[in-house]
# Entry
Amino acid sequence: SVGYPIIEVKDVEDGAEKIINLLKSAKGDKYVENYAIFYNFLYHPDRINEYIDGKNIAPILTEMHITNRCNSNCAWCVYRGADRTIEMPTEKAKDIIKQLKDLGAKALIYTGGGEPLMHPDALDIMEYSQKIGLDNRLITNGILLTPDIAERVLKCNKRIKISLDASTPETYRIVHNQTGDMFDRVINNIR
# Structure
């Protein structure tokens, strides 16, 4: 369970009313979780109605892991100890993206078992999915966001999340198992 409340709805209007009531009663993280559910009702009522009607529907948002390679070694990462050489071939990634679009997917999150920008064709893949009409999102550790890369990333992603996970260089070194000035580098890349 991801902690989302289970609600039974008759239709989109009934669902929206119930979620508005959840939002009114929630605080903090629960508000954010409930808002995510409301977002789907608000922006994709057709999908919600299809689901209620028992139809097989495509995902609205899908995560894609294009590489397991990573330039960090975060203490909490579930991929620690995994084979870091696994990488999705570029043409395979584009084929999957095309299939997702053809099924009716709306958005794609580039995340994964590694740092997405470590894939040698990450930017080309992201630009391709944007070109065919998917809304991209990127979760990155920010280490590789040079000005040139950042410019391309910003053009083809609607949202970018940078996992800094620390407020000081010392904490960053501990939680990311990094040496040197990586914290300052990421802060400068964000700027």
Remarks:
- The helical segments are 12-25, 28-43, 45-52, 90-103, 122-131, 147-156, 169-176, 182-190.
- The first helix runs from residue 12 to 25.
- The chain has a mean pLDDT of 84.
- The longest strand covers residues 135-140.
